[in-house]
Amino acid sequence: MADVDRERIEAATRELLLAIGERLDRPGVKNTPQRVAEAYAEFFHGVGEDPLQHLGEGIPLDENDSGDIVILRDIAFRSMCEHHLLPFIGVAHVAYAPRERVIGLGRIPRVVDVLAARPQVQERLGEQIAETIETGLDSAGVLVVIDASHTCMTARGTRQADSTTVTVASRGSLSDPVQRAEAIALIGKGSGE
């Protein structure tokens, strides 16, 4: 969990509860400051953590290895919008074109998790994932497609309960329109189709 100042979060939560007119001694909110501090430690564990540490050495490819692209679909994540500190929840699809090495598939969700566990905006999150994969793997190309539901849109303001936002970030060979379209088509196929 993040090295957050839980006492300050608890104090701020008590102030917030008082500011909205809530009683701190009411049974339902009595332990809310502690629960919020614990939740924020989880939500923001990626602050200050280097996502590159999760990519490691990788698995070298040799001339007999084939495959132009690696795609991992439907990586579930949750993040907190930096504008309202409300969650946005969705999936990231990550594709990369390896040069000399690949990594264990479980490492990509770890990168997504670290970068999502910060105050974030979806557009930056996709760019950061693409940059981390490109840098950490020296890949020939990277494509990141994120589809997420933002509670700042679904639960407040315009209250568009069914709306989602899709963003795309690409690097290298997967920035080429033809290769990007092919990767997006493969992402869209989903499992079993």
How does this structure look, described?
- This protein folds into two domains: 6-43, Orthogonal Bundle (GTP Cyclohydrolase I, Chain A, domain 1); 54-189, GTP cyclohydrolase I, C-terminal domain/NADPH-dependent 7-cyano-7-deazaguanine reductase, N-terminal domain (GTP Cyclohydrolase I, domain 2), CATH 3.30.1130.10.
- 36% of the residues lie in helices and 24% in strands.
- It is built from six helices and seven strands, in the order ααββββαβαβαβα.
- It has helices spanning 6-19, 32-43, 107-116, 122-137, 151-154, 177-189, and strands at 59-60, 70-81, 87-97, 101-102, 119-120, 141-150, 165-172.
- A hairpin with a 5-residue loop joins strand 2 (70-81) and strand 3.
- The radius of gyration is 20 Å and the shape is elongated.
- The relative contact order is 0.15.
Write a short abstract of this structure.
The protein is of the alpha+beta class and 193 residues long. Helices cover 36% and strands 24% of the residues. The strands form 2 sheets. Strands 5-2-3-6-7 form a 5-stranded mixed beta sheet, sandwiched between helices.
